[in-house]
Amino acid sequence: MSSMKMMLLPLLIALLHSPVCLSVTVSSSKPKVEVHEHTDAVLSCEFRTEKDQSPRIEWKKKGKAVAFVYFNHKFIGSYAGRAKIEGATLTIHSVTQKDSGEYRCEVTASEDHVNLGEATVTLNVLVPPHVPSCEVPGSVFVGSGLELHCKDKLSVPPATYRWYKDNKALTGTADTPYSVDTNKGLLKFKSVSKTDAGMYRCESSNNVGAPKSCVAQQLKVVDYPINLAILIAGAAGFLILALSCCICVCLCRRRGCCKKDKKTKSTKSFNPPPPPPPPIRNLKHYKQAHSFMV
User: Which of 104, 109, 113 is nearest to 49 (CA)?
Assistant: First the structure.
């Protein structure tokens, strides 16, 4: 028994004199936070140090570049005057969509062996629907195509849309002369008729707040005017006549060119080439005749 104690004693002494690995630990009890716009957002951050009793606390927001939120015991930029810190937990008052993003809590304990710890909290600010912009023309001709557009760019998450005609919801099916895209806010007609005339409005919703609707607008479906119909028919007839004339002229010219080419070729084939000059047999006689002529 005494021999065992003698063996454990050096081990105990070694443990007492060996350096202990001290480190700061940082965590968040709620790493993902979702709050409505214009309310307070609480970003929790808890830390524990082994030795340092006054660690340095910093908050940063990630983006295209890391920006300080809390540094050197004060808030920076737009957070000054609308945020507070308790321990290491950050509270931002009256948040907006611009506050959405990823935040990092950093605790530095210089007296600990591992002196830096951090935790990340993601903030998502929910925005209720806004009054959407609706594009409804005042009038459209019978038989023409038509697209009505509706958009709410501010709601988070993105809004879905519903169109109403005379306060009755439109649901596009295979039997209706129109189609509805609830994600894009598009109401599309392939060919409008007189029955499509009425008061149209669009409603946006995203389950964050109450749905919002634009003011209903009147859509008129009218016939083409008689003078306009005559003008269109006359223009179409003129175009057809002009096209026919151009085709005839091209055909006539083409046939005439072919005949001319054939005539030229036949004339050239019946004209024999001129006879070559007689050969000079005697150079002396040629010189005498040439001098006599001169």
Answer: 109
Instruction: Please report which confidence band the pLDDT of residue 227 belongs to, taking 50, 70 and 90 as the band edges.
Output: low
Measured between alpha carbons, how far is 172 from 164 in angstroms, rounded to an integer? 11
Q: Examine the pLDDT at 285 and tell me if it is beyond 60.
A: no
Alpha carbons 86 and 45: distance in angstroms, whole number: 9
Residue type, 170: L
47-72: per-residue pLDDT in tens? 988 888 889 999 999 988 899 999 99
Residue 195: what residue type?
T
Instruction: Provide DSSP, the chain.
Output: -HHHHHHHHHHHHHHHHSPP--B-EEE-S-SEEEEETTS-EEE--EEE-SS-SS-EEEEEEESSS-EEEEETTEE-GGGTTSEEEETTEEEESS--GGG-EEEEEEEE-TTSSB-EEEEEEEEEEEB---PPEEE--SEEETT--EEEEEE--S-BSPPEEEEEETTEE----TTSSEEEETTTTEEEESS--GGG-EEEEEEEE-SSS--EEPPPEEEEEEPPPHHHHHHHHHHHHHHHHHHHHHHHHHHHHHHHHHHHHHHHHHHHHHSPPPPPPPP---HHHHHHHHHHH-
Stated pTM of the model: 0.64
CATH architecture for the domain at 133-222: Sandwich (2.60)
CA–CA gap between residue 159 and residue 185 (Å, rounded): 9
Q: What's the CATH number of domain 21-126, 3.90.1150.10, 3.40.50.970, 2.60.40.10, 3.40.50.1460?
A: 2.60.40.10
- The share of the chain scoring above pLDDT 90, in percent, equals 59
Query: What would the two tokens of residue 185 be?
Result: 């806010």
